[in-house]
């Protein structure tokens, strides 16, 4: 469901658009795929002990934040669902 809100600003009208649910779901799924691929790759490279598991967690935390930023920026250029 797409919602548009019109806000009056003196002489002009500004439209604020919210994402529809389908777009949010697709973004969520696509992000999880990207995150999972990163985790699988990192886990393949670093394996075995509890200490290394924490290393994976730390690397994953930082790498997924960076990946998510660029993922969101890429989605701003996609017109579908807006």
How would you sum up this structure, described in words?
This protein has a domain at 20-75. The protein is an alpha+beta fold and 82 residues long. The protein starts with a strand and ends in a 7-residue tail after the last helix. Strand 1 and strand 2 (12-17) form a beta hairpin. Helix 1 runs antiparallel to helix 2. The radius of gyration is 19 Å and the shape is elongated. It is built from two helices and two strands. Strands 1-2 form a two-stranded antiparallel sheet. It has helices at residues 21-45, 50-75; strands spanning 4-9, 12-17. Residues 25-76 form the DUF2061 domain. InterPro entries: DUF2061_membrane.
Q: What's the short version?
A:
This protein is an alpha+beta fold and 82 residues long. It contains two helices and two strands. It is elongated and about 45 Å long.
How is the secondary structure organized here?
Elements: E1 4-9, E2 12-17, H1 21-45, H2 50-75
Antiparallel strand pairs: 1-2
Organism: Winogradskyella litoriviva
InterPro entries: DUF2061_membrane
Domain DUF2061: 25-76
């Amino acid at each position: 469901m797409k919602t548009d809100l019109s806000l009056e600003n003196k002489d002009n009208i500004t439209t604020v658009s919210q994402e529809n649910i389908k777009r949010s779901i697709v973004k969520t799924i696509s992000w999880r795929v990207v995150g999972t691929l990163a985790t699988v790759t990192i886990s393949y490279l670093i394996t075995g002990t509890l200490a290394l598991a924490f290393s994976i967690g730390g690397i994953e935390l930082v790498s997924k934040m960076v990946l998510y930023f660029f993922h969101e920026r890429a989605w701003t250029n996609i017109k579908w669902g807006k």
